[in-house]
Amino acid sequence: METEASTVRPEPLVKNHEKQRKIMALKVKAKEQYQNIGKYAGKYRYVMMPELYTALAQDKVIKEAALRSGVSKGVMQACWDAAGEVIKAWATEGHSVALPGLGTMRFGLRAKSVDDVNKVKAGLITSRRIIFTPDVDLKEELKNTSVQITCYDRDGKEVKRVTSTDDGTVEDPENENQNQNENGGGSSENGGQNQGGGTGTVTPSGDNGDNGGGDNGGGENPDDDDAGDTN
Q1: How far is 109 from 230, CA to CA, in rounded Å?
Q2: What values do phi and psi take at 188, rounded to 5?
Q3: Tell me, what's the pLDDT at 203?
Q4: Which of 44, 86, 153, 230 has a 20 to 30 Å separation from 209 between CA atoms?
């Protein structure tokens, strides 16, 4: 009697990657730095910032995505290029475009506000912006990722290591900007009007958007008080 040989199927690659990803942690360095400006000018303060491993090239990302999805690298490259063209085309038309598995992206402006409609002109625009808003799953992933902090003194010597016990709160740029407006910043109205001298934000569709104007790495916010965001 013939019997079929039993086969042991290997665990899918994606699940193996999931196991590896779950044990990863964000690495942060806290370096003692001299403060030249701001509230703590003239003093040394430990300033935290993320440690980046490497800047991964597009080719490596495409190769890994092809491996995980089971399609050829050529097919993945074609899909990648096509998605990029679609995102750029729709974003420049004023749409907030979904980035599958990541969130949404849109274009915006940083501009000064004026008190007279006759003063409105293109010269008020100080910069153009690319605004990314993460989706719920991505924020949850960040919330559940542990943070390992390595402390260095002013001479670059490692003095302490800490595993963060924070509650994992993830900044919500949309709500933060709304709170800014309510606390005296520029107000965002449908139609793109930005009143007052704060940092109000307007998306192309009139929705409140990301300001992201908080301090980064312990520094001061260099934005002009008269500058507002039109996203």
Answers
A1: 5
A2: -105, 125
A3: 41
A4: 86
